[in-house]
Amino acid sequence: MPEFSRSNHRSLDQLREITLTPGIAPHASGSILAAFGDTRVICAATVDKKAPRWMVQQGIPGGWITAEYSMLPYSTLDRKMRDSTRGKVEGRSMEIQRLIGRSLRAVANLKKLPGMSIWIDCDVLQADGGTRTAAITGAYVAARLAVEKLMAEGKLAESPFIDSVAAVSAGIYRNEELLDLDYVEDRDAAADFNIVMTGSGQFVEVQGSGEEASFSREQLDSLLDLGRKGIAELTVLQNRVIEDSILSKD
Predict the structure, then answer these.
(1) What is the DSSP string of 2-20?
(2) How far apart are CA 175 and CA 88, in angstroms?
(3) Which pTM does this prediction carry?
(4) What does the DSSP 8-state code read for residue 143?
């Protein structure tokens, strides 16, 4: 039997080539072009100088962080209809944008955003697997850059973020446990997981299921270990991009 080989000759526990390019949307308070291999997602953070109405009505102190997610019509091989044309947000898009928002709020002290809302818009330019994980990873950096700008302008006393957050996929493909699946691996995987973790190594969310297949406890542990390894590497990249961006403005 020929030896198993991944696209681009990646090892089983190797991320795709990952880049986080800041400043992609100049009018946003913070923005990143997140590239996971051939997947490309723009993550742009804007600041609304008011908290959500429901927080004000209920007397809840602080602010809010939320997200919107969409796949642009040309992001896939076949043109994808815009949500605005369809007249409603697609169920998958709604689920992903809620995941992005939850992930960022998990590492933020919202009381340190007095009367503010941070919106993260995540727009998929090109989809080749892992769009939600790229969106979460890029969204955190975009939000951090927006917060750094607010503090530099004297509009925010301190950062609400108490940790970083990133996400990566892992799955079972051709009986092998793999990290960071591309589209073909994701499409044909026997089990597919999306793992969201903090920079300090705590789990925020784990989404996973068998695809007309089951998996063992040992395989589950192996996938979680792969996720932990990948997120540790993503955290280093996130921190470097944030630090370089801050230094470039000094």
Answers:
(1) PPP--GGG--TT-PPPEEE
(2) 39
(3) 0.92
(4) H
